[in-house]
Amino acid sequence: MTSTTDRAGRAPGSRPLGFWAVLALVVGNMVGSGIYLLPATLAPLGPNAMFGWMATIAGALCLAFVFARLGAAMPVAGGPYAFAQAAFGPAAGFATAWSYWTLIWAGNAAVAVAVVSALSLIMPGLAGHAAMAALALIWLLVFVNIRGVALAGKVQLVTTLLKLLPLIGVIVLAAWLLAGGEARVAASPVPVGAGAIAGAAALTFWGFLGVESATVPADKVADASRVVPRATLIGTALAGVIYLAVTAAITTLMPTALVAASPAPVAAFLGTTLGAGTAAVVALFAAVSAFGTLNGFILMQGEVCGAMGRGGVFPAWFGKVGRNGTPVRAHLVSGALVTVVTLLNYARGMGDLFQFIASVSLAAGMLAYFASALAAFRLLPGDRVLRAVAAIAAVFVAWLSWGLGAEANKWALALLLAGAPVYLLVRRGAATAR
Fold this sequence. Notes:
Structural class: mainly alpha
CATH class: Mainly Alpha
Strand content: under 5%
Radius of gyration: 21 Å
Order of helices and strands: HHHHHHHHHHHHHHHHH
CATH topology: Amino acid/polyamine transporter I
Number of strands: 0
CATH superfamily: Amino acid/polyamine transporter I
CATH architecture: Up-down Bundle
Shape: globular
Number of domains: 1
């Protein structure tokens, strides 16, 4: 009788994610709402925005290298949480997992807002029911991910392919305009400064959340020790090229004031040449793009929470899996938390809500990235190249935290401290069981 298990002793069906699905998870999680919304947010910063993008891309590649090496050495579920716990013990593991989990479910509220914002350009009447529309999308994808990782992977692959089409259109159009001499380069009077670049980099890193995506569901990835690092490095590099090219096209060929005032800069840029009707088409692609990102991060919010439950730093109740092999309880609780964040903050309006939640969730997740960079020193001490890159990554993360500002970091600290009672409760339960 032939064997029906892989080298780790698992049935093939228990590892349904192959290279292309994992690459789509990485690219799809990074190339989402940010590329459609950030050009307008960053426009007042002028050339500082481009320097911010370049700094972020370099830092993200350093983080990708760290995650690739750690993922190859430890192809287990949990990503940053698993690395921090292995390197520094359960307290650090919990703090990392809690901050990372907070980053994901809080950020998902902002991504859901981005989907509805894009759709409202096509269906203006949707704006009056934005909260309910966002929640409907969130819970649709929660149940897709409960249904199985394979289905979620297919959704991710399709949406990733679709979302790249208008972005490629921007790059091709810009190249054509510049080559034909039909475009005038827009000048910006904004001076370049270290503080402005740091602020821009802190916001642009929103576009690279997900650099670690391949490491989170590693226990469900076929040949994870090879696929995870390849998808991480290739996906991050691809996202960086797309971001830099699209942002350069828009900020170089459109006046700063026009970009800043536009609710859809990508659509506005394409519309200048292809006609006003382009806006509706691009808005639909933007909605698909953000929808794919929301799917990927909802997958991760459940997987991280489930891994915490199975790892003993969160109540074991969350680690239980359903008949499809997914952490059903973790998905439901995470979905409820996204719902609360969305409802409590929707009075801010879609634009303000996106920026507020994005900043807070970014600040909350910085600990996870910082801990992962430090974990590389402990887990792979003989890898000198990794140690050098991890040091750069750690400094980059600290710099981003400074750029996010005091308000976002205060909210992040409050969210981290909110997890302390949970940790103490779990540790007390573990001690009683012994």
